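Many introductory courses stop at the sequence. We go one step further.
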Amino acid sequence: MSLRKCVLACLVYWLGVCAFAQDYPQKTVRLISPIPPGGAPDLIARAVGHRLAMLWSQPVVVENKIGSNGQLAAEYAAHATADGYTLLVGMDSLFVINPYLYKQSTVDVNKELIPIATLGANQFVLSINANLPVKTLPEFVAYAKNAKPALAYASGGNGSQHHLTMELLKAKADIDLLHVPYKGGTAATTATIGGETVAMFSGTSNSSLIKAGKLRAIAVSGLARSKLLPDVPTVSEFYPGFDNTIWIGLFAPRGTPDLIVQRLRKDVARVLASHELAESFANAGGIEPFVTSPDEMQKLIKRDQAKYSKLISELKLKID
């Protein structure tokens, strides 16, 4: 092919991509959620998807692909056609925990998916059994240090963020606790209420159980107090520097045209700025809109990868 024909062919292709991106979307966009309906990624996907559908005048549907701690959804999204019509609404753990936890995986999320935008953030609540004779974090730490045998705490499973957040607190407070993993946060909550375990880190979605007196909240894991539980102090008020929040973002298959990526970022930012979305997130368990620039999102991923990879290595955690 002559240079002139090659240049013309490239120009025609580029003009076609531009026209395609400018007209995007022209059909239904699918948002893949890695967990069942009712969890944070699913609630965020539905709230954001609803407002994107109104903005685009095109349907946006949420599909739940459940299994392997989110790996199934990540694989499905990563291997979809890179045209902007299949996107993943995924929790941070898929990118900053799973790659260090699973020995074998059918998807390399950090190579096969590209970050579009952060969507929402939430923090954990350190909740204890309501009959435990302590009311504050310092009292809990002192009680744990004197307990023989060690107090048992619940999590949603080995390598879950509930688990790793408590391990971070154990290191900061220099306490020994026995980890009891359950199959999901609901089972862990039931165990803590029932007294099988005495403590757990859970999402702010448990605030109704706390307000009903079935659990006692003694701290939250973020740098700022929760709007749902304003009287509950942060862990960092007692142990400066402690911060463990969860965030959820939008991701696309690698190879998605850059113009579509830019369009998605612009439209998602517009949606996240709306008062209606903030209300939807708040009603979904205290989730807050989380807006970052692309560079900030990349730095966030790298920061959390460094934090969790070190912790997982120290704990010698591996899942086949």
